[in-house]
Amino acid sequence: MAESAGVYCPLPSEQDNVEQAKGNPALDSSTFIPPAPLMSPSIIIEFCDRCRWLHRATWVSTELFLTFPPPVLKAISIIPLNSEETGGRFRVWLNLEGSPPQLMWDRKIEGGFPELKGLKQRIRDYVQPGKSLGHSDKKSE
Amino acid sequence: MAESAGVYCPLPSEQDNVEQAKGNPALDSSTFIPPAPLMSPSIIIEFCDRCRWLHRATWVSTELFLTFPPPVLKAISIIPLNSEETGGRFRVWLNLEGSPPQLMWDRKIEGGFPELKGLKQRIRDYVQPGKSLGHSDKKSE
Amino acid sequence: MAESAGVYCPLPSEQDNVEQAKGNPALDSSTFIPPAPLMSPSIIIEFCDRCRWLHRATWVSTELFLTFPPPVLKAISIIPLNSEETGGRFRVWLNLEGSPPQLMWDRKIEGGFPELKGLKQRIRDYVQPGKSLGHSDKKSE
Amino acid sequence: MAESAGVYCPLPSEQDNVEQAKGNPALDSSTFIPPAPLMSPSIIIEFCDRCRWLHRATWVSTELFLTFPPPVLKAISIIPLNSEETGGRFRVWLNLEGSPPQLMWDRKIEGGFPELKGLKQRIRDYVQPGKSLGHSDKKSE
């Protein structure tokens, strides 16, 4: 089924009186809990911003979220880099509880950008080992 | 000037011999340093995934990176939520060193989604106070 | 249900022999039919490229396709403009068979960018009048 | 230089009196000229929507616009397909004045998705033959 907007969620009623909002915890920001620093499992994408790879990184992020919707992946962080020594970098890390982030892709080691199918398979093998990714998928052995 | 791809960066030479790669730290993942857990300044976008707001969150992320390229913003994290009590949530947080993340936008408090100009002004006032955002901008006082 | 990749479609088998491909119409580009010039119903988004609204236009396009998947909308065209007299333009047109494109949104007339809910309602009233857009929707009368 | 928003364009002044708007051609939609049916040069991307390739198509579109900003490319149209016989399709067409659209990429013929560098080179050779695409580019001969 295709995505559609706003079907399931409580939306703030347009009839809500502003006065009623007072004392409503949903509208009192002092009660809001900021997100935790590094959720698990989560993905981190580092890339060379001089190379103009923001849109590639964003697209990879979109695809990973659609394949591994929450709570499978809890967060994706995008980190643009612009120093000389990070030139040409495109790395994808998987963060799992209890260990340092694990490298899923490095453009220089792999000799190119992640082809999505392969990247999804690697991540799947950690976060959702039983999941099929479709026709052309082969599970890890 | 428009963005263009790959103009500035060292790309791995296609002539590089695989043998030469051995002992090359750029190709030895054991030397790679994983990104720090919570960079500063950075942005965190939380949203209700049941409401299908992934693409809205991603678009906001793209716009913020283009307005505040690194090193002004060092990272943006996107956090989809799918429990009942986070229904209808769309929050933007700014993380600055030495303090907990500060709320820049909450859809329920503000009564709607961030209009980009306003959100950029709020973030600008923290991360790059002197920056003009264009014709229609007014600086904070 | 969330989107996922490649579940339904015939993918070219990796076992296909290149020889077998000869004489296969799926692989003979002389048999391919180019798309028609202006499909119906379709959307056209014109925008001022000097204003850097490409990503906004693209996001609107993504949202419209997710709300009105094919065959409801058959195509979306994005037209960046960069002359002085198109400065500040953001227009959304609906193309229906048998009539010239109809204006759904003009940023100067409306005094701002399309809030998605309103734009979707206007388009819905032409292309899929019975469709509910979710909780906060009100149908045209 | 990075993109930034709203620096160059005339934005509708917030002080504009609504009364003044009357008789202003910028606000009189009866004077608006709908876009032409098929601009040239332009790109058309057809894809199998059952395969969930909308975001891939959109990303390719974004990259092509950033590499070939207007007036080099005047428009990009995205056409999702959902019938059985278009399963697995991902085609990129170039439309040039005076000839039918020319095929730049077909996933089945090429055996996979366009790697951006190669697709940009093919399009460049038609629309902007002298343009360098960066370090790793080789011009057509």
TrEMBL record, chains A, B, C, D:
Which InterPro entries did the record assign? Selenoprotein_Rdx-typ, Thioredoxin-like_sf
Sorted keywords for this record are: Redox-active center
- NCBIfam families attached here? CXXU_selWTH
Q: What is this protein called?
A: Rdx family-domain-containing protein
- Whose protein is this, by species? Suillus plorans
What is this organism's lineage?
A: Eukaryota, Fungi, Dikarya, Basidiomycota, Agaricomycotina
